[in-house]
Amino acid sequence: MPEPAAQADAAGSTRQTPATTRDASWQRAAGRARLLSWLSLAYMAAEGAIAITAAIIAGSVALLGFGLDSAIEGLASVIVVWRFTGTRTLSETAEARAGKAVAVTFFGSAANSVTADGE
Fold first, then answer.
1. Is residue 50 part of a domain?
2. pLDDT value at residue 114
3. Total structural domains in the chain?
């Protein structure tokens, strides 16, 4: 059984948590998740830039909303890349934080859609 590792929380106190290990297939899946997130980020950056440029040229609020939505979705990709990079790959705390942060971006995307559709 793995030996517990000490972890510091936000208040600076340490608590013992079991060391987490992952098998090779899980590590490959984490690498694929990171790659897909990078590809998604590149696509959404291009999509957003084109949409925002077109919105400025056309004076279209709908296109601007679409472009901003791409930026919000891009943020979700950045969070996934963050989650699966370095020591965070094995961190259950990072998993929980990333899940919450991605949820917030989805709520932001929904709010953006509602406000853009309302104009």
1. yes
2. 74
3. 1
Beta-bridge mates of residue 5: 17
- Domain containing residue 103: 28-117
Series of mean pLDDT values for 10-residue runs along the chain (119 residues): 49 51 82 93 95 95 90 90 84 86 84 66
Distance CA 102, CA 100 (A): 6
Tell me how far apart the alpha carbons of residues 21 and 11 are, in angstroms, rounded to a whole number.
26
Environment class of 52 (CB within 10 Å of its CB; exposed 0-12, middle 13-18, buried 19+): middle
Closest CA to 96 of 37, 31, 42, 20: 20
Tokens read off for 82: 């963050």
User: Is 42 a domain residue?
Assistant: yes
Instruction: Please report whether residue 48 resides in a domain.
Output: yes
User: pTM, whole model, 2 decimals?
Assistant: 0.69
Q: What CA–CA distance (Å, rounded) separates 76 from 88? A: 16
Structural domain includes residue 16:
no
